[in-house]
Amino acid sequence: MAAKTTPTGASRPSGLPPLRRVQSSYIQVADQLRDLILRGDLAVGQKLPSEAEMAPLLGVSRSTIREALRILTTEHLIETRRGIQGGAFVAVPDSERLEGMFNTSFSMLALTNQVDARSFLQAMRALEGPAAALAAAARGGDQVEELKRTAAMVDPADQEAAMQQSADFHSAILRASGNKLLEAMGRPVSAVARSKFRRTVPGLEFWERNQRAHQELLKAILAGDENLAYELATRHIDEDLSPYYLPPEEADRDGAGA
Question: What share of the chain is helix, strand, coil (3-state, %, to 5)?
Fold first, then answer.
């Protein structure tokens, strides 16, 4: 019986089931180390064995270990330090770095048309609604002062100031939630939506309505009304922001919540 051809062009003897191609050694090493880090078997801040120590343990060359560590460094899972006490260490989590990674990934999804404006608005709604409710539940500390400052009325005729005020207020809502994950995901979603999907420069009426919505939401948060804060935050995205990002026929039809 004739041999079959694999997707790579190599012939496969008849009767032999499909085989998965073996990955490069450095990828397998990176996979093992990544799993150890993500399971917590290698603790944050822990120093990894040297290349010379790991190579014989894994049966690979030092250059293979070096390439695997380079992969994990680009993923921000490990960091290298120089000096006598230097080496490779499990990286300390950094929310700003995580936010930057989300920003890059979301930007690429938008740039390659894999995610549209409606998807970003739905994500904003899903993140900022709960964030507003959590902010209302907390309603204390420095976050309240930041909310008041970013909700302060600015001249709606000053497009740049109004745009910055709006971005700052939405960021403040996420920060006031006290939830690092909501903040790390929510800020990049909003930032990419503003930079990639803004159809036109809004007029004076939009900015006046936008600032009134911010003021109403601020009052609900300061009053500790979680349900109202959630309702106002999601309504703001559905009714005020949708026309800003979606084509008129879509925005008029159902907003972002559909």
Answer: 65, 5, 30
